[in-house]
Amino acid sequence: MDWVSENLDLIGSLTLEHLRQSVIAIAAGFALSLPLGWVAWRYRLLRGWVITVTGLLYTIPSLALLMILPVVAGYPATSETNLVIALTIYAIAIMVRAVTDGLDSVDPAVRRSATAVGYGAARRFWAVDLPLAGPVILAGLRVTAVSTISLATVGILVGVTNLGYLFTNGLQRRIVPEVLAGIVAVAVIALLIDLALMAAGRTLMPWARGAAPARRSAAEAAS
Amino acid sequence: MNLLADAFAWLFAPEQWTGPNALQHLLAQQLSFTATAVAIAALIAVPLGWAIGHTGRGREVAVAFSGAARAVPSFGLLVLLVLVFGVLRKPEAATVTFVILAIPSLLAGAYAGFEAIDRRVVDAARAVGMTGAQILWRVEIPLGLPLLVAGFRSAVLQVVATVTIAAYVNLGGLGLPIITGLSLRRYEVVLGGAILVALLALVLDALFALAQRAAVPHGIRADQGHPTGRRLDPEPAAPATPDTADTHP
Predict the structure, then answer these.
(1) Which residue in the set B70, B80, B237 is minimally distant from A179, CB to CB?
(2) According to its UniProt record, where is this protein located (chain B) (predicted)?
(3) Taking the domain B2-232, which CATH number applies?
(4) What Cα–Cα distance (Å) separates residue A197 from each residue in A60, A142, A144, B73?
């Protein structure tokens, strides 16, 4: 464990890098998934198409995507942009489905009631549909966050520095504590972000405590 | 797009398909790693998931374990296990990594399949005199099968994508052209390997989509549109079952 105490600065700065890359990708994926998920939910004809395409994105191995994207988009594979965009794509692949499922989970009677008391389409979406879809969307967001943070480590294989550096460097120099430190740091960030999302969910959606266990487990199986 | 043409030229060159590192050998390695890991993971996770679903106990533990397993980066775990097991036991280290990767999806698929069954169906089975074992084998397992197959689908997709990193510790597989191409700066080789892995994943995904459809018991399929039938149906429109790509190199 000497290695860890001697390299706390390195671990700290890599953790911050890692956190920054992941958070940008998670936020971008979430922001893009809301309209995509809404479109898929609202327009039946587009639904199969949107869900299929985003689902197929998910099947592309990340190492492959990290090499194919730069060729298609014309930026260097070693750039941080490359990793963030790839991670955003995977986030979308998980989140669009969660947004659609979430909007599906809203009781149509509630939606009709909102219309009946005079909510327009836009106001109903923000004030009724979205909050009620919140718990399912949050479950998807939590899965997305944890997987993005753990997936980001692969960036080091194309030359993007983050906590993955501790794996490649640790293997080359055969330092077990270095690799272990990397795994623990990744798991700790993932746990902290997950707890933060859970806390945000409790604050923003106080009605959702302990709700919909069956739906959640279905989402976990799909995931 | 010149690179893309070069990549396909590399893929279709006859020398890629002969010799010790011929693409069909790498493909076979990739598939055998995937099959071994998913099979071992299934032996552990499916009975456990069924037990959780049948008894309704232990779900929180399973969720906590799955969450923790998903937070562990497979790439890091592979490197760690290779260092700990030693250079001679690299294949074992890789298999353990992939087994751990596959368990959460299979576990969730097994118990969620049971939980998605309408409780009235289970109650009805008990009411007509079925024993616990009969309910398990003749009601819960068949009705839970579609979600279990969905669990297999995401487990296989995650593992087959992740096996790519095995090449980083010299275990071959389709990651080999990607990793060696990267260090040699021959990007058409990298891209060729990447295309092959993506194609393999797409083919496996399509096969599992068919299996998922076939896994729905006949009685249920005829019952679509029925209010209780809906929850038993695995939503045929759903394509991939995006999983927590926790490690999806």
Answers:
(1) B80
(2) Cell membrane; Membrane
(3) 1.10.3720.10
(4) 27, 7, 11, 20
